[in-house]
Amino acid sequence: MKKPETDGSVTNQTVDEIGSGSKFKKVKYGSMSLITIALVIALVIIFNLMASYMVKRSPLKIDLTADKRYELTDESIDFLKNDLDKDIDIVVTCNKDEFDALADSYEDYFKSLGVNMKFPYDVIPVILEKYELYANQGKGKINVKYVDLDKDPSAVKKYSDSYGQEIQSHSIVVANGDKVRVIDRNSVGSMITLDAASQNKEDINDVNVVFAGESMITSEIMNVVDAHPVNVAFAATINDAPIYSTAYTNNQMFGNAVAGLRDKLLTKNGYFCTDIDLAKDDLDVEKYDMIVIPMPSVDFDKDIIEKLNTFLYNDGNYGKQMLYFADSMASDLKNISDFLADWSIELTEDYGLQDDEKSMGSYPTIIQIEQADTEEAGEKISNARYAVAPLSQEVKILTKNNEAIPAQVLKTYDSAYNVNIVTGDKESDKGVKNIAVVSKKEKQIGHNVDNYKIVNSSVMVFGSGYIAADAFVVQTNLYNNAPVLLNAINKMTGKETNTVIIPDKELQRSVIAPTATQDKRIKAFVIFVIPGIVAIIGIVVLLRRKNR
Q: What's the whole-model pTM score?
């Protein structure tokens, strides 16, 4: 049988058609792979861009630590989002990674003592990011930047010019225009510190650390936006000798009462303090709004008393304030007693206050106190913490025929009684005793609607010199002293800026949380590595399909 004749051209055409179809399929599948890769990469890029934009508006980082070390407190968040209406610069005069180095140095030091303790200074850069994030959700804005003063010493020149002092490395500068505050390197180091409440434990390995940095930063932001700061003459010396006993600067139990009052309570909360010599320096009414007399251990002469009266009277314009903190061990203060009596105030001499039911365990002279039910006590504080007054004298209100108008500010509970400091004998029945009293003198200025106003000067007396000591105003997670004192002082001075007391944050000894360096690596992995892996996989798939 004859085979049918075939035309070679037909066969060749069929092969070409088959080859052409194969090439088309390769191009088709290759194009689809390329398009898929392009779409995936585009989606990853778009996602990262959207995430970057959203991060500027709201915090996308989630703090999973039990102690919430990387998150701000509700008080700071509320201030940043609702009250801050200015633009703030925060300049850190070191690189971010130096906070990790700071942590390593502290941890190595304690390891040399046989103590395994963590000092997570990497919290600080993360917390500063949160200040930016929350502020940008409100009416104001915070811009955080890091500068290396070794490479660029002029980076903070405009801030140091306004501040009036040289700004050192490892500091944090907070600025609102020409209003500048500086958290120096020592204060930055003390943002992570040992918890005073646990330092009495026998095993140092059981001592915890606390983060006090948020309190410092929020306070300084408030200070630079305060339109009416209070300038304080802080009476530190008399003829170059300290006004107070050294017991108030070096007490093992209570800490430094002078630094606690001046630096941790007043300066930290918008009161600009200048140390003065009460005998040598002028009390310039144009320069100072208030004078603070901290725990005088000796009596004042008549010239100093006259200087105080002249300041408070202010040529009949009044408008000045004075804070007086008593030294319970001082005696024979006749001139001071006469001065206070003119304001209808008396300090019980040589007597302390003891409380059998509201005392602090084995420390009967540290008694619990509360705010008085008066307008002068300021806004009521209500939470689980309590205020205390160690080694306090009773502050009595005198009934005198003068222009002074006294009012109760702080008081004990009704189980308090007076005891003789020397003998320990009970000197009074139980009852409520005054711990702080404020007295004001006021007058009318002007006689018609256009210029009529009431002006006054005030003196506030505290029976306890230790009421503002480090142990009680710094440990805001344990004691209410700071907000209770500030409320009364702010009320007297008319300070309008809201004062936010941020409790120190107790940090757990062990947490699962990334360090700042690990955080950078996670970001790099998400932003660069994952898209890179997707791209490489896509290229491999494309090449394999092309070679089939």
A: 0.72
Does domain 230-496 match CATH 3.40.1090? no
Cβ-contact 221, 486 below 8 angstroms: no
- Would you list the DSSP string of 180-193? EEEE-HHHHHTTEE
Beta bridge partners of 324: 293, 461
Q: Residue 511: its pLDDT value, please?
A: 47
What average pLDDT is seen over the chain? 82
User: Are 299 and 333 a contacting pair, CB within 8 Å?
Assistant: yes
Domains of the chain: which residue ranges?
14-63+524-546, 74-227, 230-496
Helix (H, G, I), strand (E, B) or coil at 70: coil
Residue 419 tokens read as 């005891």
* Three-state SS at 120: coil
What whole-number distance in Å separates Cα of residue 475 and Cα of residue 373?
Answer: 25
Going by C-alpha positions, the residue among 464, 235, 286, 487 that lies closest to residue 366 is: 464
Q: Provide φ and ψ at 127, rounded to 5°.
A: -60, -40
For residue 78, what are the contacts with CB-CB under 8 A and spacing of at least 6? Answer: none
Residue located via tokens 């390891």: 111
What pLDDT shows up at residue 285? 94
Q: Residue for token digits 């941790």?
A: 264
HSE-up (13 A, CA, CB side) for residue 300 = 25
Confidence label for 424 from pLDDT (cuts 50, 70 and 90): confident
Q: Which residues contact 222 (CB under 8 A, 6 or more apart)?
A: 79, 269, 270, 497, 498, 499, 500
Packing angle, helices 97-112 and 516-524, rounded to 10:
140
Q: What is the pLDDT of residues 187-230, one digit of tens each?
A: 899 888 876 555 555 555 566 788 888 988 998 998 899 877 89
Tally the residues of the chain.
Answer: 548
Q: How far apart are CA 321 and CA 319, in angstroms?
A: 7
Give 400-405 contacts, CB < 8 A, sequence gap 24+: 400/341, 400/344, 402/342, 402/344, 403/441, 403/442, 404/342, 404/343, 404/344, 404/345, 404/439, 404/440, 404/441, 405/344, 405/439, 405/440, 405/441, 405/442
Per-residue pLDDT tens digits for 30-69: 566 667 667 766 776 776 666 655 555 554 455 656 667 8
